[in-house]
Amino acid sequence: MNRGMVAMDAMDLGKYKLEDAFVTAIKSEVESHALYMKLAARVRNAFLHDRLKFLAGEEERHRKILVKMHETYFPGAKLVLPDKSPIPLPEIAFDDVSPPALVHVFEQAMKAELAAQSFYLGLSEKVKDNQQVSDTLRYFAAMENNHYRILEAERVNAEKMDDYDDYNPLMHAGP
Known about the structure:
- By secondary structure, the protein is mainly alpha-helical.
- It has a single domain (18-85, 100-162), classed as Ferritin, core subunit, four-helix bundle (Ferritin, Up-down Bundle).
- It contains four helices and no strands.
- It has helices at residues 18-42, 46-73, 102-126, 131-160.
- Helix 1 (18-42) packs antiparallel against helix 2 (46-73).
- The longest helix is centred in the last third of the chain and has 30 residues, at 131-160.
- The radius of gyration is 17 Å and the shape is globular.
């Protein structure tokens, strides 16, 4: 494992169909993007807002690449994202009416990012006959670990500062 990465074993995806794995990956990226955008719209802290938008953008880029991979492996197949993923991954509970504290959302998102890392390592094994795709998926795993680290830092900030999400005009001032 790379220095600085949380030690993570590859998820065993041997009992799942390859198409189900790609559908799960794409669905996970769609849901993560939506969550980070929802959180970004909710927070007032400009730095946190930007970090959440960054994470959302990363998830969207992953989705686009995964869709292309799906098209390569399953040409002509219509991509349909089910309500529930074919391969179970951690879900993040978020109620729009009564949103949970950011610390709790960050903790759930951190678990989801670690699961995504393990999932991508497992998927990279499943497609190891295609070195380029396998390498890309291992890179995604490393990126998910980076997402974990970002969320971990923000969770620590949220725990330390009572006014973490308060609007501060100085955060919006330019140089």
